[in-house]
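Example record used in the benchmark description.
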Amino acid sequence: MHIAIIGAGITGLMSALELLEQGCSVTIFDQQVAGQAASWAGGGILSPMYPWRYPAAVNTLARHAKPLYQDWNQKLQPVTGIDFQIHETGMLIFDEDDFELGLRYAEKYQDPQQQAELLDQTQLQQINPRIDQRKFKQAIYFPELANIRNPRLLQSVISYLKQHPHVTWQEHCKITQLNIQQGWVTSVSSESGQHFQADQFVIATGAWSAGWSEQLGCEIPVQPVQGQMLLFKTPENWLPSMCMNKVMYLIPRRDGHVVCGSSMRQVGFDTSPSAEIRQDILQACLEMVPELADFPLVKQWAGLRPSSPDGIPYIGKIPELQNAWANFGHFRNGLCMAPASGKLLAQLMLAQTPTIVDPQPYAPAHLLEPGRLVL
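Model output (structure tokens):
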């Protein structure tokens, strides 16, 4: 079976990996360069930031992130020579209003990856002595939470796919038209007038997905939301754990880089960083770890998240079409939902019984329910 995947962000790429595993051939399209919109720009936390604030459908997909990425890393690294750098640092959360909610969530679901404990000041300083102990006396600690170095993840996946004999690449190729006859997509057309055929078609266009609304005959409530990030360079292993307070976070990398974020702004498709946002992120992160001010700020950037009203992505067959499929709308959690999203999509496309999650909460048929989702 030949499958066209429109969109080469992490959701499209993980879908391609899963479909190749099942013996399909794949053509991957992207209007830019693979992985350059949201996937490379995020922090790489392998969990929703405050899982208890999200619908169960988000957490159900996300809890597969760490084991699935570990499996893919073992498979791809011998071929590509690139390690995803899954870094098991744990996470400290300082939002006092979330202490009880977080502990109750961990107790309810008994997920080994979401074990949590409330730390007193002595325990907190033992876990992470960089924290400002004058300001923070307690924290919830999630010891099993990890982060992944998303640029390296993308480099490895893209390298593997570009070496694969059953993958064709079409970068800088913007698909603008689905050519539909009697409920079937027969081909797609690019902005430059090229035509491409396939047996099945996957739309994984992230923040640009609402652009398909008219052609698909339904309103797609996905909009771009800009997020900005900062990068510091510290000594290796300088910051022992991830830290979060008031939706701002610090994420340590193995080589001493520390990623700080993040903002949320609705500014269309603008990816220009701003001095104002830089100051907001700096203030929040230095409040947690004041010593970070002693190290160089090496980079600021912005990416575009594909927001959906409830944060639940659309995964499955698109209504009224026999061979078109959705995998979009992952909002802030695309990186941690992508592996399970790709596996679910492949199982549905190949008429297999879904084993990874129940597909119903993600069904694109919800796009036809005007009472549930409105642009």
